[in-house]
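Bumping with the actual sequence this time:
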Amino acid sequence: MNKKYPFLLEDEEVTRVLESGWNAVRHGKKFEWSKSMFRFELLRKPVLTNKRLILLKGKEIDYELLIEDIKSVESDTAGAGNPYLRMELKNGEGVSLAFGCVSPKMFLGFFYLLGKSRSIVDQWVQSINNLILLRK
């Protein structure tokens, strides 16, 4: 059993997590920027494994999505160019993730946060797309 991630299934490995201070907010197909702003109770720690995308609330799984259920994933922007990750599921539904920083790094300014958010979205899109391709 993995002590850091006790929820891992057999043959499941963590492939990506966010650095300290960064979190994600899950949206449906329609991205609602106001849902992400200062709603700290919605912040989750995403964990990407070779089998699932998992959102943790504390140490408990709050939401999970099997990689095999994802049809496509891409980056998009909302508002003033704020990047987020958008997934289309095989059942026709959609899931979006917005990444945000809640740490002293917030005070580095808008351009730092925007650039870092864009980089995080791109990394997660690439990682999930790679996992989708491996499943085909």
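The tokens above came from a reply further down the thread. Strands lie at 14-17, 22-27, 45-49, 52-57, 60-66, 70-78, 82-89, 94-101.
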